[in-house]
Specification:
- By secondary structure, this protein is α/β, with parallel strands linked by helices.
- Helix content is about 50%, strand content about 20%.
- The chain contains 13 helices and 10 strands.
- The chain has an 8-stranded mixed beta barrel, surrounded by 5 helices.
- Helix 2 crosses helix 3 and helix 4 runs parallel beside helix 6.
- The two termini are about 35 Å apart.
- Bound molecules: ligand C2E and magnesium ion (3 copies).
- The site of one magnesium ion has 4 residues, from loops.
- The site of ligand C2E has 23 residues, from strand 2, helix 3 and strand 6.
- This is cyclic-guanylate-specific phosphodiesterase.
């Protein structure tokens, strides 16, 4: 990176970069009115019990329906919302929406159904008062904490701040479960798994991608699953796209799977139609082929 900086040091602010910065500025401005104008929507992706195929959970994934740009991906606006502090309002909206949905799906589908929500480190840094509305959502929907799983990343735990561990204890007291998202991609330290009470470890999709080619990822996935299980942590594999990846992870004893092989993230009504039609996504299991 230093090398690149050096080479470009005399003309580092190019028209193209100006364009990127303008585009970001416009998105930032539009983001201020997005919540009031009802432009966010949650999509839900099934999380499947690999043993039974039953859809037991869903991950809530936010999208922004921009009047001109169409659906904007969270990777494009969540970082902005984190910088500007808008993530607090957005995060509270996500919690309320997710709570309402899980209440409905517990009633019509599966009584122990859970919805997981992603939480940014910025939401943990906010003062306790601004975190409260998120929890009120559960009480308003008359739901037990067990209905929600909060997804955090290793980078949050790395901050090793008092508010963070005390917040995780509040979740624990409420019965809210915690998943460690994108596991293996951050500054992984196995000591986090010992120090914090984690319920689920989500193996990042980058490890799942090359599983069938017999590369080192096979050994890594097996090691992560074995270690998690010894610590009493359940494992969710992300980004399962093929029958082989599914069969290999199932054979390894991975608890849950999520990915396009089962279903893409869907709007609530289509997710509900899927639950009604295919409460279990249980593709025929053939022996995994490892080349
Ligand atoms: P994530 O939490 O790791 O979510 C998984 C991402 O992988 C989602 O991207 C999902 O659509 C995608 N995915 C699922 N299955 C597959 C697959 O089989 N193959 C591939 N290639 N991708 C798959 P998405 O929806 O674009 O979200 C990106 C990230 O944005 C999320 O990563 C999460 O970090 C963040 N995010 C999403 N919703 C929220 C939210 O409500 N709050 C916060 N703070 N962050 C959010
Ligand atoms: Mg996630
Ligand atoms: Mg992830
Ligand atoms: Mg991710």
């Amino acid at each position: 990176a230093a090398k690149r900086q050096g080479r470009n040091r005399f003309h580092y602010y190019t028209p193209a970069m100006q364009e990127v910065s303008n585009a970001r500025m416009r998105l930032t401005n539009d983001l201020y009115s997005a919540l009031a104008n009802d432009q966010f929507i949650l999509h839900y992706q099934p999380i499947v019990d690999l043993e039974t195929g039953l859809i037991q959970k869903a991950e809530a994934l936010i999208r922004w329906q921009h009047p001109q740009r169409g659906l904007v991906s969270p990777s494009d606006f969540i970082p902005i919302a984190e910088d500007t502090g808008q993530i607090i309002g957005i995060g509270n909206w996500v919690c309320r929406q997710a709570a309402a949905q899980v209440a409905r799906w517990r009633a019509i589908h599966y009584p122990a159904f859970q919805v997981s929500v992603n939480m940014s480190p910025a939401q943990f840094r906010a003062n306790a008062d601004s975190r409260v509305p998120c929890f009120n959502a559960l009480a308003e929907a008359d739901l037990p904490g067990q209905s929600i799983v909060v997804e955090i990343t290793e980078n949050l735990l790395m901050e090793a701040r008092e508010e963070i561990s005390s917040q995780l204890l509040v979740f624990r007291d409420m019965g809210i479960q915690v998943a460690l998202d994108d596991f293996g991609t951050g500054y992984s330290s196995l000591s986090y798994l010992k120090k914090f009470d984690i319920d689920y470890l989500k193996i990042d999709q980058s490890f799942v991608r090359n599983l069938a080619s017999g590369a080192s990822d096979l050994a890594l996935c097996e090691a992560m699953i074995g270690m998690a299980h010894k610590l009493g942590i359940q494992v969710i594999a992300e980004g399962i796209e093929t029958q082989d990846q599914y069969a290999i992870l199932k054979k390894m004893g991975c608890d849950y799977g999520q990915g396009y092989f089962f279903s893409k993230p869907l709007p609530a009504d289509r997710f509900e139609a899927l639950l009604a039609k295919h409460p279990a996504l249980c593709p025929a299991v053939s022996e995994p082929t490892i080349s």
